[in-house]
Amino acid sequence: MFLLCAVAPAHAQSLGQGLAAFKRQDYVAASRVFIPLAERGNVAAQSYLGFLFETGRGVPQNYTEAAMWYRRAAEQGDTRAQYSLGLLYDRGQGVPQDIVEASKWLNLSAAASPPRVRESRARIRDAVTTKMTRGEIAQARLRALEWAPSRER
User: Fold this and answer.
1) Which long-range contacts (CB under 8 A, 24 or more apart) does 37-42 make?
2) What are 108-148's pLDDT values in tens digits?
3) Which of 143, 49, 55 is nearest to 102 (CA)?
4) Which of 59, 66, 77, 102 has its CA 20 to 30 A from that of 145?
């Protein structure tokens, strides 16, 4: 976590500035904008920061950090973060491998995704489901049904 304090800018920057840096592939600048925003609970910044840590762009690659940021965004209902967190659980990267938890997050993501990505996310969810027993599928569905988004305080 020492990295988060070391790169925080002296003045607050907007999500738009971080997205602009991300789009021009200046991932170091993007991370400097996203980190303080993510720490304050900005869902989009958390999701993008998870991606930066997962891929090692602008920050050292760290699946545990990626999972933490994805989880914070996923718990608030961000479908991209839910999808990415589900994949980390499927692969056991940054979190213990857990097919039921993977399926839960992939189910939630597919159900709430915009139409343009829903089908591809559903295909990935279904591919993960083929590795599961009926009991695991039922457990994952129950976890997804019991889940409710929460706001950070």
Assistant:
1) 37/13, 38/69, 38/72, 39/4, 41/72, 41/76, 41/151, 41/152, 41/153, 42/15
2) 999 999 999 999 999 999 999 999 999 999 999 999 999 99
3) 143
4) 66
